[in-house]
Design goal:
It is a single chain. By secondary structure, the chain is an alpha+beta fold. It has a single domain (about 5-85), classed as Alpha-Beta Plaits (2-Layer Sandwich), CATH 3.30.70. It contains 4 helices and 4 strands, in the order E-H-E-E-E-H-H-H. The protein has helices at about 15-20, 65-75, 90-95, 100-105, and strands at about 5, 25-30, 35, 55. The strands form 2 sheets. A two-stranded antiparallel sheet has the order 1-4. Strands 2-3 form a two-stranded antiparallel ribbon. Strand 2 and strand 3 form a beta hairpin. The longest helix has 11 residues, at about 65-75. Bound molecules: iron/sulfur cluster and FE3-S4 cluster. FE3-S4 cluster binds near residues 5, 9 and 33.
Amino acid sequence: MTYVVTDNCIACKFTDCVEVCPVDCFYEGENTLVIYPDECIDCGVCEPECPADAIRPDTEPGMDVWVEFNRKYSELWPVITQKKDPLPDHEKHDGEEGKLEKYFSEKPGAGD
Ligand code: SF4
Ligand code: F3S
């Protein structure tokens, strides 16, 4: 199994998750992060760290699409291991519906 980042990370990107990952398997896009499923060791420590509750185990229903999403963009984006400021409008966007369609950017983030 693996853990994955899901849509409520988009336009928030708190980055608390990256500080606790023992294997540094988070990758940074312009406005969201992803986990590389092949590197994640399923320890689960990142899940409770996310203020947006965006990290889920792939054992939950409907996660297949997010596993493929996380894998695809992990192979394109730079690694991130250090926390940085959340995106400027994170309070406004936390919990908003339809974030994938409205805000997702395929552009890479800055990484570490
Ligand atoms: Fe990293 Fe563990 Fe979270 Fe996987 S479950 S991304 S290994 S902290
Ligand atoms: Fe995103 Fe939550 Fe990490 S909002 S950057 S998955 S702490």
